[in-house]
Amino acid sequence: MYKYFISVLLLFVFANSFSQEEKNDTIVYKTSYGLRVGVDLSKPLKGAIQGNSNGLELVGDYRITKRWFIAAELGYEEETSSEDFSNSTAKGSYMRLGMNYNAYNNWLDMNNEIYVGFRYGLSLFDQTINSYTPNVVTGEANTLPYFPADLVTTPITETGLNAHWTEFIIGVKAETFKNLFLGFSLSYKVLVSVKDQQNFKSLYAPGFNRIFQSDTGFGFNYTLSYTIPFQKK
Q: How far is CA 119 from CA 78, 155, 166, in A?
């Protein structure tokens, strides 16, 4: 009888221990779902260092699944471009809209991200030719155009310009404090279309940055953002 009692007791202890282990193994760590909003710190830093630009960009994303986020950026920018024979200023607003995919496997309840993304971008802007040196054709055969010393300083402004592009992004977001994130990203942009100023090519489009002859460009941002949690899943 004594041996039977000991056997039953050991069986009960083993079963209880197994049940506790199973419960511990099935603990689910929930993470925050909500709207994350912030600001691009690189815009004011660029303006303070270079002095030929100023702007503000607001960033945001909304988590829809464990790895997918709807993302957007809205901003205003003014940039002056100085070339060998011209000086021009582009200013206007822009938006970028797309998705991010978080490829990073977080531990427990961490919310860090290493992500790739895609955006469609639209910019509406004005451009002013501040000054330029016109080239002159002499009309003589086999004579190349030349640039005289006469500098034209009467500003010429055209409004209602626009640019459309796509961009591919890779970036990082790190949760430094609860729901507070620092992040940076790099983007490669491909211009789809641009409406240029009459007789003058657009050198810069807000949100796209410098426009090269290849109709491609690059971007960088450094963000501080905060998640407003709506629920946990």
A: 21, 34, 6
The residue assigned the tokens 């002859």 is 213
Q: Is the pTM of this model over 0.90?
A: no
Would you give per-residue pLDDT tens digits along the chain (233 residues)? 444 434 533 444 444 544 444 444 455 667 778 999 999 999 998 888 888 889 999 999 999 998 999 999 999 999 999 888 889 999 999 999 999 999 999 887 778 999 999 999 999 999 999 998 876 666 566 666 665 667 888 899 999 999 999 999 999 999 999 999 999 999 999 999 999 998 888 999 999 999 988 999 999 999 999 999 888 77
Query: CA geometry: angle at 95 spanning 91 and 101, to 5°?
Result: 140
Q: Which two tokens stand for residue 4?
A: 């039977």
Q: What is the CA radius of gyration of the chain?
A: 28
211/118 Cα distance (integer angstroms)? 19
Between strands 209-210 and 156-177, the pairing is unpaired
Q: Which residues in 69-91 are b (16+ Cβ under 10 Å) and which e?
A: bebebebbbbbbbeeeebbbbbb
Non-local (6+) Cβ contacts of 48 within 8 A are none
* DSSP 8-state symbol, 196: P
